[in-house]
Hints:
Chain B: Belongs to the TRAP transporter large permease family. Chain B: The chain crosses the membrane at residues 52-72, 84-102, 173-198, 223-242, 248-266, 278-299, 311-333, 340-359, 365-391, 403-422. Chain B: Pfam families: DctM. Chain A has 162 residues and is mainly α. Chain A has helices at 3-34, 43-64, 73-76, 80-111, 124-151. Chain A contains five helices and no strands. The longest helix of chain A is centred in the first third of the chain and has 32 residues, at 3-34. The two termini of chain A are 24 Å apart. Chain C has 309 residues and is an alpha/beta fold. In chain C, the strands form three sheets. In chain C, strands 2-1-3-10-4 form a five-stranded mixed beta sheet. Chain C is globular. The chains are: A mainly alpha (162), B mainly alpha (435), C alpha/beta (309). At the A-B interface, helix 1, helix 2, helix 3, helix 4 and helix 5 of A face helix 1, helix 2, helix 3, helix 4 and helix 13 of B. The structure holds sodium ion (2 copies).
Amino acid sequence: MRPDRIIELFEEIVSVLTLGVIVVLVLVQVFFRYVLSSGLLWVDELVINLMVLLVLVGAALATRNGAHIDLRLIVNGLQPWLRLVLKVLGTLVTIVFLLVLIWASAGYAYDSRNLATTMIGIPLWLAYGTIPLGGVLILYEFLKLTVRSVRDGTFNSDEVAP
Amino acid sequence: MITGVSLIALLFALILIGVPVYVSLGFAGAVGLLVISMGQTFGDPFIAIPQSLYSGIGFFPLLAIPLFILAGEIMNRSGITDRLVKFSVMLIGRWPASLANANILASMFFGGITGSAQADTSAVGGVLIPAMEKEGYSKEIAVAVTASSSTVGPIIPPSIMMVIYGVSVGTSIGALFIAGVVPGILIGLSLIATVLVLDRKHKFPRRTGSIPMREKLTITKDAMWPLVMPGIIVGGILGGVVTPTEAGALAVLYALIFGYGIQRSLTVSDLPAMLRRTAILTAAVMLIISCAKILSYALTVFQMPLLIGAFFQSISESPIVFLLLVNILLLVIGTFMDGGASLIILSPILAPIAVSYGIDPVHFGVIMVLNLIIGQGTPPLGLCLFIASAIAKLPVERGAKAILPFIGAEVAVLFVVTYWPWLALALPRYFGFVV
Amino acid sequence: ADAVTLKFSAVFPAGGQQGDGAVQLGKYLEEYSDGKIAFQFFPSSQLGNKIQSLEGLRNGSIEMTEAAATDLGNFSELWSIFALPFLFNDGADAIRVVSDPRVAKILNEDAEANGFKIIAWWNMGERSIINSKRPVNSPEDLSGIKIRVMQSPMLAKAITAMGATGVPMAWGEVYTAVQQGVIDGLENSPPVIAVNKFYEVADYYSLTQQFIIPDPQMISTKVFDSLSPELQDAVMKAGEASQKDFNAKWEKAVASDIQLLKDKGVQVNEVDKAAFRKAVQPLVDEYLASADAKTKALYDTIVTVRDGG
Ligand code: NA
Ligand code: NA
């Protein structure tokens, strides 16, 4: 299997499973509260950490699928040379932000390496570590799309990516 | 103050040159943190980036967002759109501009199932734009009616935007949901009124045939299942059976029972596809709101909430003037900026000011959401307008012109709701959500 | 030179007991430093929740914050001791104990090792149960009553051990949940119950007083260590003044808020706590059996000081 396909599968499996587990856990919580008249103390904490994982890995999948919201209308109406300048600028801004995100969040996870969440003791390097992991995946997907569009000449096209 | 205003200018500049909204927010925020790190600091302000992402996503009430998206996704794939459209067409019957009005009515029903305006535009628009064109409506009117009417989605509960406001202001999400019911219906009625007024000049196609009684029964029966879902959500919250997050989980369960048990239109292999799509949509929404928190943190350190509060106080002590200014500000911002991001950045700043003017935070939430969703139907960043134009293969500029009277009607409702708080607060008050 | 700016990050809103207390602390800081300290108050979680604020102090990006003593348990096990039910006789007693040099030494050393310099202790009173079903006098009265619990194992388990059904829930949903009957009640101190108008939705406030958790006011050690000795002195003096001022006002607020609850029609009853203490004792034993040596030493010291040793 191609490495890119493996990465895609990883993103898909993690997103789908995480969301599935979240839904089941919330339903179980409702069941416990109404039918058994009690609550599961660990559910909330597990679920919110799964949410962070879901969103960060899902964001990479969203990048792959061109699902992040942006505004092309105004840029598309400009002269091609100006559009190219802005597109290059925007690409650089995105790369810089993602690098800062990865660097800052990796440091954050590292600084919390000896700590854990209070209810179920998830190590914080793991809980916080999903942020740099997602950042790396998003950056990978973004660079891949950028390189591809440069190669096939659609980098500066006003066609919206499929 | 200057730094704060410069950061907001940078944000708009980045959005306007086509940088993804989440990157624009995060980058402007990171620049703010850089400025902070160059002043007096004892530590590394960039810690605010991972903190904002972690806490901006990992907060229990926000779970309602993926749950309502998933419930809408399942209902959608189970084929409720056709049922709701048929039911709406049947109810509208032989009214003038029948199909245009059915489009609006269908969006109101649909709004009770999804929490997002875009989902409505693609679903209802996907069916009704071609149908309207076939009946002889212009592409412009089809796009204008579809895009404007789908904005009722986030006002009629459930609503992702209400969840975001509730979370960032610390107001009951249940109260906000209930407060949106009457304004949502008013928006729908105002759009129908606009269609009827335009009809006097344009003479839109009118349906003539009648539907046999037997078929009417079938259509009604088919529509009941999807129409029960808003009842579960609103009723569950009103009756005190569930919290909004739990209502989301029940909505998912109901949708699954409907799709797999009643309708039997879904296969096992649809499930991962629906979860995958929901994960992508959730990530796109929540990455934006958590990156908005980075910028919000920087603006807070630069004392923007205090400065803006003092600014409003210096202009006028009258809540009427304050609300007027807020409406103008938000209508403009709503046309440029993503609604969720605007709420994350602005509601913690504006809501406490509103409260100091004696405005109820639930009422203020309805006002903010109304303002920001109206912008979804207008350029430059009007996603509903984009989607509807894309479906009709119409240049956005032409759709933008046709939508103006409808936007006017929505703004009129906005002002009525703004200055007559009773419209938003009567229901939550009656059910004891607001004191 | 320019004044040193100290950002004080809090989750509580401006106004109210704590908000006023923060503003007063700022006044003391500015006064005792002759204006060499500029105080900025960020209420309502504007700069982040409790964990973020504490992380900010460790990092130095946020200079000051306040938290419940139990919140420090996220960084060091020692602090989970404050989650033990019926640990102190009442709030004022808790302040006396944590201010005693023997206890303070252990707490301060641990806090400072984690990046927090404690400058004051605020009395947050006693947390008692309010519910919409009936007055609570014994564990049996709590049977079948759903009480909102916090996201902390000990705080949650103790409520269950006292006889109620513990339901974890985000604070923002609690009012509506009680009002709608999703849960029957919650536990908190009289000022918090009063300011959030829980008297509108629940009629029985029973002074069970199971948790007594004081709030340390903290400055980042990174920040504190970089201040001149003269400013360090000003910070500690301001802390001392704040502790005295806040705790005096708190006692008054508790009395007037209990009266307010009564005026609003809430039935307030005193409780014989013996049966509840007995019900939670196995939890306490279990906790101490598994606690590390440092935590056990702290517990012994607290008990000695509390009982007048
Ligand atoms: Na909706
Ligand atoms: Na529509």
